[in-house]
Amino acid sequence: MKPLPALMVAPNGARLTRANHPALPVTLPQIMDSARACFDAGATGLHLHLRDSRGGHMLDAGLYDEALAELALAVPEMSVQITTESVGLYDPAFQRRLALATRARLVSVALREILADGDEAAARRMHEAAQERDIALQYILYAPHEVDRLAALLGRDQLSRAQLLFVLGSHGGRDGSPAMLPPFVKGLDRLNIAPDWMVCAFGQPETDCLLAAHRAGGKLRVGFENNMTMRNGQRARDNAERVAEIRRLTAASVRSKAG
């Protein structure tokens, strides 16, 4: 299956608008412009959220496929991952169906959302169908104990081949911290597995959280969905500036380690 990109940008998310930042992309043309700029700045993947005509969060297989086709023309070398995030608008059964219903090869699913109805058998069927169709599901985990919950759902062998996103902080205003990362990593160590994992983090500490993830061997997701602030506390000009800072700092970290 297609691996996670080393540096993914999440340019808009489901909740924010241009009232939060004038450079936040909402329409598909704006998302395409942001994707091009972020690719030029060093992002190799895009986490895609679509909006309706009023700017609200929207999940639609047909519109996803249209967007994927447009992005393939605009940034053909960039991997694109679609979201199944519910934002309280879609039920788990719909989310599980959507994960399999588009041309996307990368799809993110929040473990707590797809299990909100308690239907573990349906979640396992989704995972098995995704494997058969060469769709890489990235399981979003909001707390370290969810590593064990996912292991119980899929089994240790399947989890070792899964893609994960560790979320540091929350939408409710709780900033992430590098200290939140080790419990997630210890969960993997305890199971003696090394899946393809990534980190995103909320708030101004995003940069330091991503650097900690980079040092621990993880991949990185940056962007306005989680934070609009540079490491020095200044507001970022756009998503590409956030990508460029992370790219620059991780490259410096590699050079320092090599030296």
Keywords:
single chain, 259 residues, alpha/beta, TIM Barrel, 42% helix
Outline of the structure:
With 259 residues, this protein is α/β, with parallel strands linked by helices. Helices cover 42% and strands 17% of the residues. The protein has a single domain (7-258), classed as TIM Barrel, CATH 3.20.20.70.
Number of domains: 1
Q: Which superfamily, in CATH terms, is the homologous superfamily?
A: Aldolase class I
CATH architecture: Alpha-Beta Barrel
Helix percentage: 40-55%
**Element pattern in H and E:** EHEEEHEHEHHEHHEHEHEH
Cα(first) to Cα(last) distance is 34 Å
- Helix segment tally: 10
CATH topology: TIM Barrel
| Overall radius of gyration | 17 Å
- Read across the widest sheet, the strand sequence of neighbours is 1-2-5-6-7-8-9-10
Broad CATH class: Alpha Beta
Strand content: 15-25%
Backbone shape: globular
Count of beta strands: 10
Helix/strand-derived class? alpha/beta
Q: How is this structure best described in words?
A:
The protein is of the alpha/beta class. The chain has a single domain, classed as TIM Barrel, CATH 3.20.20.70. The protein is 42% helix and 17% strand. The protein has ten helices and ten strands. Strands 1-2-5-6-7-8-9-10 form an eight-stranded parallel β-barrel, surrounded by six helices. Strands 3-4 form a two-stranded antiparallel sheet. Helix 1 packs across helix 2, helix 1 (28-41) packs parallel to helix 10 and helix 9 (206-215) runs parallel beside helix 10. The mean pLDDT is 96.
